[in-house]
């Protein structure tokens, strides 16, 4: 059985590579541009949070929790810059002959912040949190394919699947897949193997962590302490950075981004990644059951105008499917959906939906500028005879009360670790009622998705994932006009290496990867 972690070999399930020989047994600063130095208190302004936040690994819906969890805990696998899988609590891994089982070698000599040594049993218990009928995990749909998780040798865990999955190791880098002590459900104590130890935790307000003096990773977790500050208002967050109250922030407003970029002492970090902004239609709602109506909605938005006026040019044109060029299997062959109000009007007439009126529910929480984008969309769609009624909703409770529960609503997806994770979570049958926001259920898509994850031949796998994207493009309920660049801003005192493109602020791992310059 071959054990390896390079992206190509992990995808193919072919060839062997010694992780210890190529990467070493310790993680390293990701593509460091200067020499990191230790010390200081890093203060980070967070816009996405809830007073109901919890450190339960099953439930990590907000950015506040992502950052805090990555400060306190580790996964088996880390997603590095460029989508490269890096050993974390697993030193190496590999599949059986048909990729229906994966073996993970667990790192020895690691202790939790309470002094307990990490064991293979901790790994099994942690992964099983996301399985079974009682789990509340956001990764439940992805873990449905897991038949068994077992200790198969000292410091070795085998995950058995219900079929081949070439990209399964990447799933274990997701934020839900954090490793915690077995049988310990007091999650809010923050016990983990991470670079920091929890000191203060006030959901919806702030958190404080202190450097773990026994952290097992070399060249990581440089700060003495990290403070997360919950600042929802974009103007307040920007002012806090300008006045030195915080050292970094994400979700920079595209309107003020050029001003920040020109300001002394501030660095703007623009990262092209997997993020798309847009609107989702519930395809089971009477308004959107007809495919022609859904296509009309896609042709009723002027993407170039949205990119220029709403996104300020910080992004690129998207095409109503979720896989950007940052994914290995992005489908570049799809004809571009373009603004065509006359064709949209003809499609509505064909569907018997002339004079369509659509309530569109938005808040600023999904993405900065969502309300303005919805209003611009309404103006554009009016030329196709579509009346869009923009319904402004409060940010508080948007994800639980509005998203996925209205006929049409604003949405944001930062992307996921690989194609299978993104497509399974948001578009598969097994995710309906969870992250499948549009309740889309396409039989051909579901079968093609299973075939894609099971395919060992890279060329054929690419073809299958291209077909999945084509089906979403032509049939699903997504109106995605733009790929939005991640916009972060920092004090110029902050140093960092190459920035990851899966989430903002270096994959939500800036607390571990960044440092203060000398």
From TrEMBL:
Q: Which Pfam families match?
A: SBP_bac_5
Keywords recorded for this protein, A-Z: Signal, Transport
Q: Which residues form the Solute-binding protein family domain?
A: 85-421
Where does this one sit in the cell?
A: Periplasm
Which segment of the chain is annotated as a signal peptide? Answer: 1-32
Gene3D superfamilies in the record, alphabetically? Answer: Dipeptide-binding Protein, Domain 1, Dipeptide-binding Protein, Domain 3, Periplasmic binding protein-like II
Query: Which family does the record claim for this protein?
Result: Belongs to the bacterial solute-binding protein 5 family.
Protein name, UniProt field: Peptide ABC transporter substrate-binding protein
Species? Gemmobacter nanjingensis
